[in-house]
Amino acid sequence: MTCNPADAPVQDGARSVVTVIETRLQGKRAIHFCSHPVLSGANNDLWFPVDNDVALFPVTEHIMVMNNVAVNVVRAELISVKDDCSDWRIVYNQRGAGQQR
Which of 16, 27, 61, 84 is an S-S bond match for 73, by CB 3.0 to 4.6 Å? Predict the structure, then answer.
């Protein structure tokens, strides 16, 4: 479960893309934002706990909006699955510098 430099956020106008890893840590579901300057954490090892019965889309949107990164999430695309680990491509409308929360 590692992010590689190719997973860095990509910007296309107001839309951006970030890779999210979904897995189980210590028996609990968790997600990690790869190579994101805010959501990856200071040491690139920040994981967000996720309830088992919640879909990935609203969870990522909530985290990204609450951390002033996105206006909203447009879609979540499954990239790959291996054992208990899934990689997702998250497409979102990024928050502009002057936009209010």
Answer: 61
Tokens of 24: 């189980």
d(CA 40, CA 65): 15
Farthest CA pair distance, the chain = 42
The pTM score is 0.82
- Per residue of the chain (101 residues), give pLDDT as tens: 556 555 555 555 679 999 999 999 999 999 999 999 999 999 999 999 999 999 999 999 999 999 999 999 999 999 999 999 999 999 999 987 555 55
Radius of gyration of the chain (CA): 13
SS3 63: helix
**Residues 71/99, Cβ–Cβ less than 8 Å:** yes
CA 66/CA 64 separation, integer angstroms: 6
